[in-house]
Amino acid sequence: MNNKKLFAAVVGLGLVTLSACGSSSSSDSGSTGSKTVTLVSHDSWAVSKGVLADFEKKSGYKVKVLEDGDAGQAVNKAILTKDNPQGDVFFGVDNTLLSRALDNGLFQSYEAKGAGTIQAGYRVDGDKVTPIDTGDICVNYDKAWFSKHKLQPPMSYDDLIKPAYKNLLVTENASTSSPGLGFLLGSAAKYGDAGWQGYWKKLKANGVKVVDGWEQAYNEEFSGSAGGKKAKADRPLVVSYASSPPAEVIYADPKPATAPTGVADGTCFRQIEYAGLLSNAKNTKGGKAFLDFLLTKEFQQDMPLNMFVYPVVQGAQVPAEFTKYGPQAKDPETMDPAKIAEHRDDWVKSWTSLVLK
Q1: pLDDT of 308-336, one tens digit each?
Q2: For the packed helices 284-294 and 49-59, what is the interaxial angle rounded to 10 degrees?
Q3: Alpha-carbon 173 to chain mean position
């Protein structure tokens, strides 16, 4: 999930464990006998120092991490360099972009050990990618703003186009941002091929603001975030994640008794992130070992407080803060990856013409 690291830093304390993300790499080049395994990811990758150290000790591999910006940027760069890849494993392609990666031959086949423990709803056909985590892209709202203005926060897509919520929502550009694209796909799933454009016309008429990415939307435009409060932001609605409210609690100092933000449960789209062994990877053995590691309970249970996502393996526990402040959406919008593949580029092009011009 993108920009969670930036979220943590802006909210306050940051993650002490993030210094482990670029764990030590040896001087060898990553050949077949290399003891370095290189992970290529978006810039939200994070793991606790002790968890990564345990993998390195048990496997004998040192982990090097190359972060390549937003998920869309990272995927595109990996495709362009697939014949001579930067690393061995790619983490962070999600269901909105998966078909692009697969169609361009980004990954080679490998079924990770532990694949049988993945919950049925997250499994994919074939063995080119491994589901690693999941989360929900949803509209978040500023509780204090709505209380002050004696207005009920919106709870659905339909609510967002009502006059009461005019000029209150900020979202991300669907062509440059993963949550922005997820929000577009959620509306397409909700209103269908024939209805989503009409919905966005109404949303535009109701004053939706579009910015390039999540960091700008959440930390500069959204009045409910710690960053937004400091910047005197004036938009009390933002497209973010269902896991953003617990993050607001966890990183606050002092910690509030309740989350200052809430989630409009009827505006959510289910996102799933995958990892895969890169085609032409130099260290395939190390890459396979690392993919196996990503499905261990140790890593899966470490993810929530580092990347603010949910585990996908059976029996993995989530922190109490997630259960209390950021439960998964009860009935999120979903879309078959094949349909996303068929329509994504045309939808983004149409959306750009409708909303940005």
Answers
A1: 999 999 999 999 989 888 788 999 999 98
A2: 130
A3: 15
